[in-house]
Task: inverse folding
């Protein structure tokens, strides 16, 4: 099999067109996932545009003032934090019955690279490296059974680990449609060395790969959401070959950034 090209990779940020907004499929999933409830995942947050109430990314509550997400979700909004809002305590995609939180500051990882930007066809560069950001909300989040903190990881990820991913992203691709409720899909870690063999770009140790099967995996709008292992936030949805083709997807390895995250939580 030919290696998958870095140019065919996309981040899983949702770019909405008028057409996509009208389509809300029933009984469709993350792609291939299952409906889930917020009290089972009370750390799950959505990032929405205030004006449209549209979810463009996921995030995770890591303290009563902080949300962990992907840098590519928010780096365009750093000067414009008043245009987005964080929702917690709600699993329904369009509902505003949860709690909303306005944003004080957003810190992206200072070395976040984004997409490879040189036009070298034979590029062997890393892409979307250091894809994490921390949002500080203005008011403390009142913790309860619907909105609560997820613990940071206390160990490396092992090759035989499995976990699950959560999101409100597209449940069909390329004609994207969006679920009415939060989706969950179990995924298996795919060893980094094996993952490298499938792609023509370099992987960074701050990333990891996971997969399940053809027809299962994160898609547009799932960016920034959590990958949960043993009840802790092990990863952040980052990018993939879109979507659910049965090849491994890429996540930010939270444990690799634990000092960076703790420094912000303690500042
Ligand atoms: C996507 O939508 C276009 C235009 O409506 C249609 O022609 C095409 O067949 C659709 N593709 C899939 C895979 O459903
Ligand atoms: C969906 O739920 C079923 C039944 O609990 C489970 O067997 C399956 O693994 C789940 N699918 C995913 C992708 O998590
Ligand atoms: C990863 O590669 C090793 C060495 O080639 C191989 O033994 C192993 O089965 C591979 N694992 C997977 C999940 O493909």
Result:
């Amino acid at each position: 099999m030919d290696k998958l090209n870095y140019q065919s990779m996309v981040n899983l940020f949702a770019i909405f067109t008028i057409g996509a907004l009208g389509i809300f499929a029933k009984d469709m999933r993350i792609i291939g996932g299952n409906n889930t409830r917020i009290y089972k995942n009370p750390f799950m947050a959505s990032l929405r545009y205030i004006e449209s109430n549209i979810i463009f990314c996921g995030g995770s509550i890591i303290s009563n003032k902080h949300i962990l997400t992907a840098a590519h979700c928010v780096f365009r909004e750093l000067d414009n934090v008043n245009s987005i809002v964080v929702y917690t305590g709600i699993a329904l995609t369009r509902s505003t019955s949860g709690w909303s939180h306005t944003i004080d500051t957003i810190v992206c990882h200072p070395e976040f690279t984004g997409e490879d930007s040189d036009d070298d066809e034979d590029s062997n560069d890393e892409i979307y490296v250091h894809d994490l950001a921390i949002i500080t909300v203005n008011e403390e989040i009142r913790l309860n059974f619907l909105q609560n903190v997820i613990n940071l990881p206390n160990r490396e990820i092992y090759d035989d680990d499995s976990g699950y991913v959560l999101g409100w992203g597209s449940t069909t691709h390329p004609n994207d449609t969006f679920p009415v409720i939060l989706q969950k899909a179990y995924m298996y870690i795919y060893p980094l060395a094996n993952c490298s063999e499938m792609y023509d770009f370099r992987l960074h140790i701050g990333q990891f790969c996971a997969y399940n099967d053809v027809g299962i995996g994160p898609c547009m709008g799932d960016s920034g959401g959590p990958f949960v292992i043993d009840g802790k936030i092990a990863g952040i949805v980052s990018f993939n070959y879109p979507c659910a083709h049965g090849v491994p997807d890429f996540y930010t390895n939270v444990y690799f950034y634990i000092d960076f995250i703790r420094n912000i939580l303690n500042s």
Q: What stands out?
A: The radius of gyration is 17 Å.
